[in-house]
From TrEMBL:
InterPro entries assigned: ADH-like_N, ER, GroES-like_sf, NAD(P)-bd_dom_sf
SMART domains: PKS_ER
Species, as recorded: Kribbella orskensis
Entries under Pfam families matching the protein: ADH_N (PF08240), ADH_zinc_N_2 (PF13602)
Protein name: NADPH:quinone reductase-like Zn-dependent oxidoreductase
Keywords per UniProt: NADP, Oxidoreductase
Amino acid sequence: MRAVVLDGPGGPEVLRIREVGVPGVEAGWVRIRVEAFGLNRSEYHLRAGLATNARFPIVPGIEAVGTVDLAPGGEFAVGQQVVAMMGGMGREFDGGYAEYTVVPVSSVLPVQTDLDWATLGALPEMLQTAHGSLHTGLGIQPGQTLLVRGGTSSVGVAAAVLAKEFGLTVFSTTRNPGRVEMLQRLGVDHPLVDDGNVAEKVREIVPEGVDAALELVGTNVLPDTLRSTKVHGTVCFTGMLSDQWTIPDFYPIGYLPNGVRLTGYGGESSDLPAADFQRYVDLVAEGKLPIRVDRVFAFEEIVEAHRVMEAGGAVGKLVVRVR
């Protein structure tokens, strides 16, 4: 089979397609014939040498979609549509950047849909991260206000759409004024141009601040996101688009506004129940959940795909078709 093999960190050009053996599979694992996979920021971190738990050589990829090729334990039928994500994919063992991938049963969700493979390939990790951030990290409730910091990222787009579907009023940020209209088309109530002072803009609309905020940019803007949030509101730190992950000399009383809660989210596929994932997929298929796929690449274009991801040139999800 063909697989993208990463021998060590470097620029996008270190991603090389090779002929390798089809992996074996044992009980408790599932071999999937991969049709497509989405690109994720964590795969850039791995490739760039920013991941602390990386091992090389490795086939990257924390998600994939396709059909079951073999499930020795009988948990899934051969030919069944499935998605796979997380659980160590692309870090602890070879991941989804390949024609076949072998993953633990716990990382696999069944799905039934007529969506094309590229669209389905955009959904697993994007929806898992957005759903988990909103419901586990923030505990959102209908009628609340939500700020999405980093709103044109794939997770930012998904979070805004899922929050609207759940009955929230959504604020979402972009550093590019040319992307405001796109956020409006996605249903965002208050698109904001991020000039570093989002809190002031939020409080011009809701003087007490938002009920909840999803931080997808990084620790460099986290203080401003905290200032955007009301007393007893919650900020969830999920993303690191800026590659700034830590807070030097963190002093909680000086850093956190009075009464504002700070949580984090870095969950697994189990945070997105199969029934919820199927519901989201059905809503996408019905045109009621406007998830955005920015661009679809051929397998042979994996280097260019990573260049686009690293440059932040996408609004929404980047997807690679394997076949």
